[in-house]
Design a protein that fits this description.
about 150 residues; mainly alpha
């Protein structure tokens, strides 16, 4: 188990471990359509974060990265297919982080928060724009800041 999570309940640990998946589905599906480039980007980010995340988060991302693509595909299937039905459910799940992050070491919580916002930004940029680069759609732009999660700083 991740040392930081020893103070959390099993349900809180599950919420923390599912956060990158939830963010991936929320942002990728913001425009009502989750395309393959967004799934590939989410999987790629999960793999990269296992090696290049902030030092305190490497262990966390190694845990999150186990079967990430499979878990992502299962999660996509579990939620409604329409964004207007899916997004409120995901936002509700992500809002649980507001009671969890204050229980964690402040530095870890701040790095986690910055890291999942980075995931949101990269996934939003992965679909659209000139040759698929650096474009964030309107629906994604409303969610990319993950404003449902309070900055633990």
């Amino acid at each position: 188990m991740i040392e930081q999570f020893e103070v959390l309940s099993r349900e809180e640990v599950e919420t923390m471990l599912s956060a990158p998946l939830l963010v991936s589905v929320l942002i990728a599906g913001a425009d009502n359509e989750i395309d393959n480039s967004e799934i590939k980007e989410a999987v790629s980010i999960a793999k990269l974060k296992q090696k290049k995340a902030r030092l305190d988060l490497i262990e966390y991302y190694k845990e999150v990265g186990i079967d990430f693509e499979d878990k992502l595909k299962v999660m996509i299937q579990q939620f409604p297919s329409k964004a207007e039905e899916r997004n409120p459910l995901i936002i509700s799940e992500l809002e649980k982080l507001n009671t969890i992050l204050p229980k964690l070491d402040k530095k870890f919580a701040e790095e986690f928060y910055a890291s999942i916002r980075d995931i949101a930004k990269k996934i939003a940029e992965s679909s659209g724009g000139l040759l698929g680069y650096m474009a964030v759609g309107y629906e994604e732009s409303k969610l990319i800041g993950l404003n449902m999660i309070k900055n633990p700083a």
